[in-house]
């Protein structure tokens, strides 16, 4: 619990190790959760607020530790919030590459050492009590503070305190707890600031990332309509080449077919040439008159789809397909009813019973 409190502390200090660990965890966990909840705007927005807050607060504590201007807080936190918002809105996996921008902003803070030596516990120092995470020492007080008298030239006794803090006098006459040495982070930052090639390389990486992500977005959006059209054509072509077997010509100029799954298809000559879907039960869109076949008596039977497709020769035909579950009811109605209506066309069923009864493929569904 205390550790969680320290993550949301406003007044404390984070050293470089803790800051880098928190930032790395924020980026990795956010990518995992954002990918899992893609398309769920409310949850994604809550994740954005939570992780932006954690990143902003650790950046603030890092600024406290390095005694830097608090305005630097906006570089890593605001860029992260902006990129996270772009990820949510775009719903493109390529957007995650943009997180390199706030990551670079956060890495700048790693180059600054602690301004003052502090008693860090798990990299944190501040008002939150973190003593429960501090390793216990097994040395007794006598081992910590062993006092040995010794004589010096002025006949006074000098006490040597082993393992006591060593005070060093600064050039200005004051005392400091540690001697500042050359810091690798400082060296890296100064090298980058003084090396135009390194600066150009960093800018080039950012620009190339932006170009790559933008190109990925454009390709995705440009391909979406084409992909939808292609899928429609594939579906239509699949419907066109649907297996139609055992054609049976009926008296009133329409033909029956059987699919490989024993579904009935009724076909008749069309008055238009363009291939098109007139009705689809999957989308419930199209010509309402093709929605079902209606007989003069009995219940109507719904169609699965009705389309116009190339038939025999240069003509186009209507193809009304029905579910295999309705095959027996449909054949029974065609055999014993007087007429039916489909897509605004009226058909007579005179003589249909005799034709169906002579065909072994369709007669199996007739009950006399």
Question: Any overview of this molecule?
Answer:
The chain is an alpha+beta fold. Strands 7-8-9-15-14-10-11 form a 7-stranded antiparallel sheet. It has a 4-stranded antiparallel sheet with strand order 13-12-16-17, covered by helices on one side. A two-stranded antiparallel sheet has the order 1-2. About 45% of the residues lie in helices and about 20% in strands. The longest helix has about 45 residues. The protein has 2 domains: about 140 residues, no CATH class; about 120 residues, Immunoglobulin-like (Sandwich), CATH 2.60.40.
Give short descriptive properties of this protein.
11 helices; 368 residues; alpha+beta
Please give a quick description of this structure.
Helix content is 43%, strand content 18%. It is an alpha+beta fold.
How many helices does DSSP assign? Answer: 11
- Largest β sheet strand count, sense and barrel closure: 7 strands, antiparallel
What count of structural domains? 2
Strand order of the largest sheet: 7-8-9-15-14-10-11
In whole angstroms, the N-to-C terminal distance is 80 Å
Radius of gyration from the CA trace? 40 Å
The run of helices and strands is HEHHHHEHEEEEHHEEEEEEEEEHEEHH
Helix fraction, binned, reads 40-55%
Q: Assess the beta-strand content as a share of residues.
A: 15-25%
Judged by helices, strands and strand pairing, the structural class is alpha+beta
How many E strands? 17
Overall residue-averaged pLDDT value: 79
List the helices and strands and how they pair.
Blueprint: H1 2-7, E1 13-14, H2 16-36, H3 41-66, H4 74-90, H5 100-109, E2 124-125, H6 141-144, E3 147-151, E4 157-161, E5 168-169, E6 175-176, H7 184-193, H8 196-240, E7 245-250, E8 254-258, E9 264-269, E10 276-280, E11 285-286, E12 292-295, E13 301-302, E14 305-310, E15 316-321, H9 327-336, E16 339-342, E17 345-348, H10 352-357, H11 360-363
Antiparallel strand pairs: 1-2, 3-4, 5-6, 7-8, 8-9, 9-15, 10-11, 10-14, 12-13, 12-16, 14-15, 16-17
